[in-house]
Write a structure and sequence with these properties.
- Helix content is about 40%, strand content about 20%.
- It has about 260 residues and is of the alpha/beta class.
């Protein structure tokens, strides 16, 4: 079976604290034809030197681009038949790319494939595991994004057919793209393909209201609206933020109140 090149796009901006692990992870995959494009938005933390020193990684300078535009640039430059994006603070599991290549190689009609994803904290402790199950457009619209972005892979030609990421979005660009896969041949691979780091200072965590605004714009774009499932998720987000604010207001032991 012919080995298909996989192009991994990593958008980054001052993420050197995580980037080396990402570079090592992609390079260490048990699959040879891999292209790793690191699209840098103008980092000043040693990112450039780190990428240039890494065999197999290619630095793409793109100062001023937002994340969606940086990923699109990487997609357009990609030489691989299969493309994906992996943020600097995320990882693939051992053998993930080989498993993905096997899935695409075994079915010429396959447009996209995705798997499970472990969510970990900064100490690499497992918080939970995302097991999305089969692709379901109505479920996506009704419940929100249930596909873990680091574990999604696309045949590049599909982007030319359904469109690239909407660069107006800062959080929901992946969700918008998944909805455009409606009617395509999308396969669920029931194995853990990626590891996603969840921490308090990540873009998603610090901009939850902005992310929700984007989600609602996207839902309405595809004919949906508020559902009980979305309302429940939104309420849980508000409750979690309220608890965080309460904890911050509690004075430390021995600290006088104002």
């Amino acid at each position: 079976m012919r080995e298909r090149m996989i192009s991994v796009i990593t958008p980054t901006l001052n993420a050197a604290a995580y980037l080396q692990a990402c570079l090592d992870n992609v390079r260490g995959q048990a699959y040879a034809p891999v292209e790793h494009l690191v699209v840098d938005g103008g980092s000043r933390d040693g990112t450039r030197e780190m990428v240039l020193a890494c065999a197999g990684a290619r630095l793409v300078d793109a100062p001023g681009l937002n994340q969606s535009a940086a990923i699109n640039l990487g997609f357009r430059l990609a030489k691989g038949e299969i493309v994906a994006w992996l943020n600097a603070d995320d990882l693939y599991t051992p053998g993930a790319l080989a498993a993905v290549a096997e899935a695409f190689g075994g079915d010429a009609t396959l447009d996209a494939a995705y798997g499970d994803c472990d969510v970990v904290d900064l100490a690499d402790r497992l918080l939970w595991r995302e097991r999305p199950g089969p692709y379901d457009f109505e479920r996506l619209l009704r419940r929100g994004n249930y596909l873990a972005q680091p574990a999604v892979f696309l045949r590049k030609r599909v982007l030319d057919e359904v469109g690239y990421l909407d660069e107006r979005f800062e959080c929901g660009m992946d969700y918008d793209l998944w909805l455009r896969l409606r009617g395509r041949h999308v396969a669920y691979l029931p194995r853990v393909l990626a590891v996603y780091r969840w921490y308090a200072t990540s873009k998603t965590a610090v901009n939850q209201f902005g992310c929700w605004r984007e989600l609602l714009v996207i839902v309405r774009r595809y004919g949906g609206g508020w559902t009980p499932a979305l309302a429940w998720s939104y309420a849980r987000m508000l409750l979690a933020l309220g608890r965080q604010q309460t904890v911050r207001r509690i004075p430390r032991l021995g600290t006088p109140r104002d």
